[in-house]
Amino acid sequence: MSHDSEPTPLSAAPGAPLRGRLRPPGDKSISHRAMILGLLSIGETRVEGLLEGDDVLRTAAAARALGASMERLGEGRWVVRGVGIGGLSDPAETLDFGNAGTGSRLMMGVVGGQPVTATFDGDASLRSRPMRRILDPLRLMGTQVLAEAEGGRVPLTLRGPREAIPIRYETPAASAQIKSAVLLAGLNAPGTTTVIEAAATRDHTERMLRLFGAEVSVTPHGPDGHGRAVALTGQPTLRGTEVVVPADPSSAAFPLVAALIVPGSEITIEGVMMNPLRTGLITTLIEMGADIERLREREEGGETVADLRVRASHLKGVDVPAERAPAMIDEYPVLAVAAAFAQGTTRMNGLHELRVKESDRLAAVAAGLKANGVAHLIEGDDLLVHGDGTAPPGGGTVATHLDHRIAMAFLVMGLATAEPVTVDDGAMIATSFPSFLPTMQALGAGIGE
Ligand code: S3P
């Protein structure tokens, strides 16, 4: 799959209740980080449950180009042999990250902190996304930006210093990608690199750095304690280890909402990561009246996971506070779909970061709702979706703008609207949930070409 490939339109039609069990693919955030810390450590890293989606495969290819060696032992089972901090080599070619914002930004942090030179590029979506948020702190740490596309975008070329400069950095947006890029550059800094975030974002980098042997302290920050100060002691020796990747809650979100809105459905989603910095959607859906049970809570790979039993539910509109956004930042498209079936208005506050995802997700969601006859309004950075508790008309074609989550969200919608819903291109679904189609079809969903 590349930006040159032909678009693949897909349609979803309303049909019978969804039934059965599924295990969503491995978490994308953790999969990227496993490849990156595998590269930066000494010895072998064994990964179980890796998401083999295009985004992660791009990160794996970049890690290889920077010196790691890799072996795929079976589905989701990989061994990475790293080169250690300071052991990276200049890649022979441009690092092409395709659609992968997380992979590219985290790897910019790696390259920006090490004495190597690399060029980053990607597809039309990635080329439109802001990278200054990463380049600004990296420049403070001694990274040279040798070339960049207009407005601080890819393609861009970075050269890292012999040693990075340790900094204390307040992130300008609640972004785990910014935090992670700075921490990864800080691995090669003699001293403590501290990242201050006004609101806590997903903490997978911090957790995994510790797992590989780094010293990381995390303390509450700010007047209400919602923020975090994350301090990393530089130049540790990272040692390869075992990483078990739990199922991705951001992928689980699609069958979960599908089962809520298709009448009579009951499904079980197995092994879903319940990290509280990722479960904002579940919290919100339960407030809306969703019947979601957390079963068999247990520890897997350092995270709490649970099986989720989901039954079709009558939903009601709620107000989603802006403070919850970091814990469900990727889930707003599918929440908007759930809201279209709810009785009353759902107000989603503080969605400015959605404008700089794989697409302008606020605009793409609004256009998709409009195409399918759902009443809604954008007020500043807030999205309001109005429902009357019945199925919206559907029948529209949705422009996905190279955005996997827009494609999956509106296919889910089409499983319960009066008329089928079409998305103009489903190819990007393979970036995060390559088995989406067969998985949904096995539950009885009428999705296809
Ligand atoms: C991610 C962080 C989020 C999220 C993305 C994955 C990560 O981006 O949207 O899908 O793995 O760190 P931001 O940090 O830009 O909010």
> Average pLDDT across residues?
97
> What is the chains' assembly state?
single chain
Domain tally: 2
Low-pLDDT parts are none
**What is the CATH domain class of the largest domain?**
Alpha Beta
CATH structural architecture of the largest domain: Alpha-beta prism
Strand content: 25-35%
Question: What would your notes on this structure say?
Answer:
Strands 22-23-1-24 form a 4-stranded mixed β-sheet. A 4-stranded mixed β-sheet has the order 2-15-17-16. A 4-stranded mixed β-sheet has the order 4-5-3-14, with helices on one face. The protein folds into 2 domains: 10-26 and 246-448, Enolpyruvate transferase domain (UDP-n-acetylglucosamine1-carboxyvinyl-transferase, Chain, Alpha-beta prism); 28-242, Enolpyruvate transferase domain (UDP-n-acetylglucosamine1-carboxyvinyl-transferase, Chain, Alpha-beta prism), CATH 3.65.10. It has helices spanning 28-40, 54-65, 101-112, 124-127, 132-140, 176-186, 204-211, 249-261, 280-287, 332-340, 361-371, 404-414, 436-442, and strands at 10-13, 19-22, 44-48, 69-74, 77-81, 95-96, 117-121, 144-149, 153-159, 168-170, 192-197, 216-221, 227-233, 242-244, 266-273, 291-300, 303-311, 319-320, 343-348, 376-379, 382-388, 397-398, 421-423, 446-448. The chain is of the alpha/beta class and 449 residues long. β6 (95-96), α3 (101-112) and β7 (117-121) form a beta-alpha-beta unit. The two termini are 17 Å apart. The chain is built from 13 helices and 24 strands. It is 29% helix and 27% strand. The structure holds shikimate-3-phosphate.
